[in-house]
Design goal:
The protein has about 150 residues and is mostly beta strands. It has a domain at about 45-150. Helices cover about 0% and strands about 65% of the residues. It has strands at about 10-25, 40, 45-60, 65-80, 85-90, 95-100, 105-120, 125-135, 140-150. Strand 5 and strand 6 (about 95-100) form a beta hairpin. InterPro entries: Autotransporte_beta (IPR005546), Autotransporte_beta_dom_sf (IPR036709), OM_autotransptr_brl_dom (IPR006315).
Length: about 150
């Protein structure tokens, strides 16, 4: 068994991840009111994803009290299993029908870049961009974080 090593700062490190998830839907009772006696039927969905990539970070001292840490990530994720979530429903006395959600992309490129600025001894301001790209969709996010330790 190989022991996992932590990535040293100022280095490019490779990483891998495995995630498994199972969603079980048990038969739901009849709903009343506006849903007109709708019934949910039992079913399961299984989704497994693997992620491979590289990450890096580097710290710089801008002054005696001001430090900057830049970081980046480049990766690839692959999904196996039920990539399109689905639920089987039926109206009272009617035939069952399937409702499908948005599919999860089978192959996705992942990009992340960000920095943290240490303002004093107990305050950090950070900004991060995260992007996921596939052949049919993309997901982009920018996150700002202010951390004060006391």
């Amino acid at each position: 068994m190989r022991r996992a090593r932590l990535c040293n700062q100022d280095a490019i490190c490779r990483f891998r991840a495995l995630r498994c998830g199972e969603l079980r839907a048990f038969e739901a009772g009849r709903l009343s009111g506006d849903r007109r006696d709708q019934t949910g039927l039992a079913g399961t969905s299984d989704l497994t994803t693997t992620t491979l990539g590289f990450r890096t970070s580097r710290s710089f001292a801008l002054s005696d009290t001001l430090g900057l840490t830049a970081r980046g990530l480049l990766g690839w994720s692959h999904a196996f299993g039920d990539v399109t979530p689905a639920a089987k429903l039926a109206f009272a006395g009617g035939q069952p029908f399937t409702v499908q959600g948005l599919p999860v992309a089978r192959d996705t490129g992942i990009v992340e870049a960000g920095f943290d600025v240490g303002i004093g001894k107990s305050t950090t301001l950070g900004l991060t961009y995260t992007g996921q790209f596939s052949n049919r969709a993309s997901d982009n996010a920018v996150k700002a974080v202010l951390t004060v330790r006391f």
